[in-house]
Write a structure and sequence with these properties.
The complex is a heterodimer of chains A (380) and B (395). Chain A has 380 residues and is α/β, with parallel strands linked by helices. Chain A has 14 helices and eleven strands. Chain B has two domains: 298 residues, 3-Layer(aba) Sandwich (Peroxisomal Thiolase, Chain A, domain 1); 87 residues, no CATH class. Chain B is 37% helix and 17% strand. Chain B has a nine-stranded mixed β-sheet with strand order 3-2-4-7-1-8-11-10-9. In chain B, strands 5-6 form a two-stranded antiparallel sheet.
Amino acid sequence: MGKRVAICAVAQTKYESNKWQQRMQGLVWEVVKDVKEQVGLGFGPREIESSVTCSDDLFDARTISDNAITDVVGAHFQGEEKVAADGSQAVYYAVSQILSGHHDVVLLAGHCKESQGASRNQVTHLAFDPFFTRPIGLDYLAAAGLQARAYMAASGVTDEQLADVVVRSRQWAAKNPLANAQDAVTREDVMASPMVADPIREGHVYPVSDGAIAMILASEERAQELCDNPVWITGLGNCYDTFYLGERELEGNFSLSKAAERAYKMAGVTDPKAELDVVEIADQYAYQQAQVAEGLGLCGAGEGGAWLEAGGPDAQNVNRSGGMLAGNPLLMGGLARVAECVLQLQGEAGDRQVAGAKRAVAQGSTGPAGQLQTVVVLEN
Amino acid sequence: MSKNRNVGIIGCGMSKFSSHREEVNQPEMIFEAVEEALADAGITMDDVECIVHGNMELFEMVHQPDMWHALGTGTRGKSGVRLTTGGTTGATLACAADNLVASGLHDVVMAVGFEKLQEGHTTGGISNMADPLWGRKLQAGALTGTTALQMIDKFGEERAKACAMKHRVIMDEHAALNEKAHRCFNLERSFITEMMDASPQLVGELRMIHMCSQSDGACVVIFASEAKVEEWKKKAAWVHDHETVHREESIIFTEEKTTHRVSAERIYARNGITNPREEIDVFEMYDPSSWWGLHWLGEFLLLDGDEHLQMVENDEICINGKFPVNPSGGVVASNPIGATALVRVAEAAMQVRGTAGKHQVPKPVHKALASGFGGTMWSTLMLLSDEKLNLEEAS
């Protein structure tokens, strides 16, 4: 990248399992108002020029879900474009709006209320094609079960290790005031929780969550005016895998490896094991923390079990936010990772701060069993 | 606002548009458009780095359809972004593809717009966009008779109705020249009054015959960096600019201007266009009905009197007229919603590149304008040209 793009402000709601008292518009306004005040900008030319939103028609049960929030993101005779995928993809697109020269200051605002549906699995079931894979009842949880079984066999990950991933997530979540699942659990608690998609146990699954996130992104020139501690997006990459689970190497990281390779190349990261101070992984299910660690190059392919055993997550500062396991809704999983990286790089992460963090990586995924992967490298 | 680097459209493809594409599933129908666009550009999937994808998912009730559609878009191993903004989706995809190439993140980006309306309930799907507490009981899909009422008030019943029908017939004449068009009825100018009177009223004077179709179809447009365009020696339709004007969902009756007029004012001002009727050679407009097509022509061209009615009455908007509008037949002929606004960009690019075949306008095309419409009266414009931007001069 020739020019640079910075994140100048971040705001998140508290993540909760049922924010019944707030409509989605209220959630989004809470965080949009916050970031606007942080940078002291209104909407319009030379202020916030455009917004990139992130939401989903099915989760919101509204056709064109963004038309419900155009007013709260300032789109009164102004630009607004919706990314319908994980919020890390919205970061990817917002950066292109600025690097293209089309805009200098962009508001990014995403939301998801998983609590509104009777079951989020009913929504993700509809991601499967109506001919072959929907009739057998697949949803993201069931697809993850198939992937978890294949991955655990290939990488030697055990039920005990997965329980420890959850125990550690809760320990860090207790230090993150915005996290949803903060109650301490023991290895035994997790291992006694029922199977929901063998080998995935109830304790391995991120809790149903509601929440919204907003950010202000700006070009290099404007970023310096807008804040004292801009966090620079120095690398971006994303990649799709094919659709049918049977045609993928479920235990591998085809799309994530490519996404990471693209982002690392742009950011000049040559040795991810040594050059990343903070790592945020969107672990919807406990096994994904190890699988994604392999894909991000924190350990070798097939070494996820050994990496967990050797204390890799602590050594490499993985998910001090508590991770997605501590409860972010789908769509906000990757965006919450980016938000945590920004806080860490600004030195604003409170009791979970990684001292002297200079470079962070955030990962997000969209689709069944991580079909689309997104990687963002950030530096202060 | 400036542009980091030039972006050109080098390939366009469309599936056949129809009310029922039962012989193909969604990825298969998309693949038809992908193949045609790649052939048009003279490249292969190996040359494409990034795919932007969009539609309106509540029509077909497929969540995150870019996942399944990977089978038809060829996105395995490639980058991509999914964007959806209702009816404007296709225009948003074009803006996004332009941004992604201009940013330097990608050299070749393929925009894929899609809808298979036969697999869902179109009017029900659209009604579902209204606020469940405040608006849903009132929303009747995309059917609104307000514009007809206003135009009748302003221009008199006889003239307004005749103009809307004339617009409809001209679009039908254009559709007859476009082999991809969904509907062509061979409507005859001599029976305009009879056809209108015989057509069922939907809302007030908005009649069935004025309204767009609901179609199955896919559209693909390939955007490339200037370096790639030159390396491959392609004739390109260069993207000069785009403007997106959204607004809130509540209706504010005191608004003086439409989003269409505001988007046009902005894009003309930035690009030094003072007389759009003279300086733009062809306009592909998202015209969901003949009433809207007629009204919005005046808005997009910043007209205040009855000149847009005159433009229809004197055949100026015909394919061989002075200011051709929708030589493709427009949206009243074909409307696969998630693809529709991208079809406007594709058709404008085809006119600039001279590849529109039987519906190529019979005059040189230097500048073409494409519009997208959707959401709660949202407007997106893209300006294309046969000459690339002089970026040093522009900045």
